[in-house]
Design a protein that fits this description.
The structure is a homotetramer.
Chain A (H helix, E strand, L loop, with lengths): L6 E6 L15 H16 L4 H6 L6 E8 L8 E11 L3 E10 L7 E8 L12 H8 L1
Antiparallel strand pairs in A: 1-3, 2-5, 3-4, 4-5
Chain lengths: 135, 135, 135, 135
């Protein structure tokens, strides 16, 4: 994968992201996965708001997270996202989160998405969308 | 106010509600206010889903919270809600949260709501709704 | 698995759980998994607060979710949790969420947990804990 | 107030911030208030992590929010925070949130904070902290 195919966003951990174990609560990483995924699409000229207007939706059908080391309050994190699989009507995104300037991932994971129309029925991923996310 | 005019719900604090100060994160009380408010309406035969179908919405226009003592992980809380003010097109709910079996409030507050139609334009609160929330 | 080995909790979906696709936001299911997991432990005489006092922690190391059908605002859900695997120093919980009175799961998943001490170092699961969660 | 006394952060609204009314869920603004507040302190050389190490804590004792117009998915918001009041042992922060490049506030509010020690007892705000937040 050449780096251009990835999108990176930065996130600053707030108090509200932590739990009483002094680490980021495990559910919150899914929010950062989403933030990076939306930025990935926006960076390719496909803001999700625009796709919805066209009747193209990508609800999450599966999610997996591997928590390697905890992120902590005030950490500045980088969330890296890329499309790792494209089929007729499904997409897979892969993610890794690390502290800015560090290599080791704190959290990794993926999400699967079904391409659906306004009524929630599966549909083939439009050609232009396919081209842009794999480009 | 006679007790029948109040609605009470119970909430168990989870890890995800806490922050690294070992207490419930302050924003989460607004979620519990909402849970009690919805139950208040449901208990009077006005589930919010049904009101939305009729084109009656009550977006929050103001919120106030007073944090007196912290709620903690695994606490079983009671959230008490009642309508404290009804005008032509606005409603006010008051809330208090305490540990089950205790008197002292951990958190108190209120929310103001504007009655709106499907386009978000202010409208008078329907008579039957008014009757039921003040009954 | 005999039913006694499962724990069930009920959850009412609030507005704050939904997103603009009119369904529960996918990250929120992890919170309900946690609520059911804590109740599972509490029901066996092992409240998580008490385990922490003993220096026994079970941070999440992996999570997986399969979203089958959406949960919606005001749905009353049942979250079923049970321990599906116990090794020397790790636990796995399995979860299923369905609407009250329905059979079909809306969401299923699992979480893996490492047994750790106060310093976050892996340790063997204490005998009594092992006995109670598999009992 | 001269502009230097304010801190501004940017926030991109994600799907997870919205609710089924297609707007940001009202509780989430408190998270953004917190993000701006922490950045305010960090920008003055007082990262909250560092203050906690010194035994200086500022739990929220009151919060008020006025919702003027809704923020929406993918909006890029600016959150402006400044200290509006300093007493012996309490601080008040004021906040305003608007879309980037717009003037009108979508949401405004304030939070009060009590200066506490590690045991949660009120204490006077240390001189250097007072100087830096009012400087």
């Amino acid at each position: 994968m050449h780096p251009a195919a990835q999108t990176r966003i930065r996130v600053r951990v707030i108090f509200g992201d932590t739990d009483q174990a002094h680490v980021v609560y495990h559910a919150n990483y899914l929010r950062w996965f989403e933030a990076a995924r939306c930025e990935f699409l926006r960076a390719r000229g496909l803001p999700y708001t625009q796709m919805m207007t066209r009747g193209v939706h990508f609800p999450v059908t599966e999610a997996y997270l591997r928590y390697r080391r905890p992120a902590r309050f005030e950490d500045e994190l980088e969330v890296v996202a890329h499309v790792s699989e494209v089929r007729g009507a499904t997409l897979r995104f892969d993610y890794a989160i690390h502290r800015l300037g560090e290599q080791e991932a704190l959290c990794e994971g993926y999400t699967y998405h079904a391409c659906c129309d306004d009524q929630g029925r599966p549909q083939r991923i439009p050609k232009d969308v396919k081209g842009l996310v794999t480009g």
